[in-house]
C-alpha cells in the first residue's frame, strides 16, 4: 500500500526535541509524501536537516485547534494523518488505519492505541445536565464517539462538515470536535485496537506552564452544551472485567485472614464503579 492519498500534519510549541525525534522517525520510514508543520514557537524552528518534504507554516501560539484547521486547509489528498510531536511514526500502523478507512466508507476519523499515557475511546452522552464520558472496551476496530486525538487518521472531506474550535487553544477542544461530529454529521469515529503507536512525551517546565495556563474552555463547553458537570464512567463490560480481576486477586492471592477485609474492598469498588 502506498501513501499517495495521505498527508501528514503536526504542530509543536516548546518541544523541539520531541519534534526532531518525530521527524527522524518519519525520515527513517518509507513515507515520501508531504508533511504540513504548524510551528507555534515564538521563533521559527530550522528543520533543514531532515530530508523530508515539509511545508513549514509559522503561527506563534495559535493553539492546537487552529493548527488542526490550518493543516486541513492545506491538504490536497483524500486523507490527513495527524500525529502529535511526542509520538513515534509507525508506517505499518498508518497502513492498517488506511485499510480501515477504505473498508468503511462512513468512517471519518480513526485513531490507534498508544503504548503509554493512553486514554481509550469514549462514548459521549448527556444525561440530567451531565456529560458522561463512558470508557469503551476495545476489540479490533471499535466504534465510539471520541477516539484519541494525539494520532489520528481523518478523511479530508469530514472537514467540509466540521472544524475545530479555534478559540480553544487546549482543554475542551477534543470533546468539542467529537460532539460536533456526533451531533451534526453522519460520520463514524473509531479506535483501532490492533495498532499501537509509541508515545514519548518530553515536558519541559515552560511547556507544562503553557498547557496548564488558565483557560475558559471547559466553561465554554458546559455553556455550549448546557451541562453542569462532566464525568467519566466505565462501560458495563469494562466494569465486569475489572471486578473479575480484582475478585481473583482478592480470593486467590491473599490469606484467609485478609479475605473478609478484601471482600469489603471489592464491594466498595463495585459500588463506586
UniProtKB/TrEMBL annotation:
This is Glycosyltransferase 2-like domain-containing protein. The lineage of its organism: Archaea, Methanobacteriati, Methanobacteriota, candidate division MSBL1. It comes from candidate division MSBL1 archaeon SCGC-AAA259A05. It holds the Pfam family Glycos_transf_2. Residues 16-125 form the Glycosyltransferase 2-like domain. It comes from the Archaea.
Amino acid at each position: 500500500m502506498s501513501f499517495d492519498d495521505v498527508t501528514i500534519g503536526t504542530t509543536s510549541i516548546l518541544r523541539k526535541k520531541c519534534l526532531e525525534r518525530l521527524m527522524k522517525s518519519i525520515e527513517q520510514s518509507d513515507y515520501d509524501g508531504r508533511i504540513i508543520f504548524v510551528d507555534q514557537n515564538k521563533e521559527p524552528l530550522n528543520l533543514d536537516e531532515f530530508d523530508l518534504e515539509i511545508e513549514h507554516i509559522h503561527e506563534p501560539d495559535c493553539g492546537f485547534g487552529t493548527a488542526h484547521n490550518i493543516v486541513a486547509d492545506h491538504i490536497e489528498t483524500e486523507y490527513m494523518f495527524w500525529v502529535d510531536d511526542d509520538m513515534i511514526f509507525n508506517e505499518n500502523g498508518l497502513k492498517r488505519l488506511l485499510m480501515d478507512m477504505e473498508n468503511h466508507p462512513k468512517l471519518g476519523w480513526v485513531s490507534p492505541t498508544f503504548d503509554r499515557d493512553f486514554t481509550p475511546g469514549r462514548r459521549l452522552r448527556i444525561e440530567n445536565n451531565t456529560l458522561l464520558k463512558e470508557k469503551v472496551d476495545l476489540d479490533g476496530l471499535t466504534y465510539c464517539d471520541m477516539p484519541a486525538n494525539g494520532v489520528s487518521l481523518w478523511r479530508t472531506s469530514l472537514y467540509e462538515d466540521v472544524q475545530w474550535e479555534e478559540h480553544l487553544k487546549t482543554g475542551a477542544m477534543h470533546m468539542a470536535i467529537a460532539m460536533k461530529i456526533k451531533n451534526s454529521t453522519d460520520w463514524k469515529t473509531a479506535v483501532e485496537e490492533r495498532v499501537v503507536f509509541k508515545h514519548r512525551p518530553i515536558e519541559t517546565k515552560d511547556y507544562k506552564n503553557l498547557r496548564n495556563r488558565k483557560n475558559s474552555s471547559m466553561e465554554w463547553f458546559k455553556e455550549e452544551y448546557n451541562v453542569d458537570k462532566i464525568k467519566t464512567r466505565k462501560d458495563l463490560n469494562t466494569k465486569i472485567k475489572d471486578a473479575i480481576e480484582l475478585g481473583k486477586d482478592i480470593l486467590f492471592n491473599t490469606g484467609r485472614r485478609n479475605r473478609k477485609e478484601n471482600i469489603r474492598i471489592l464491594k466498595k469498588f463495585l459500588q463506586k464503579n
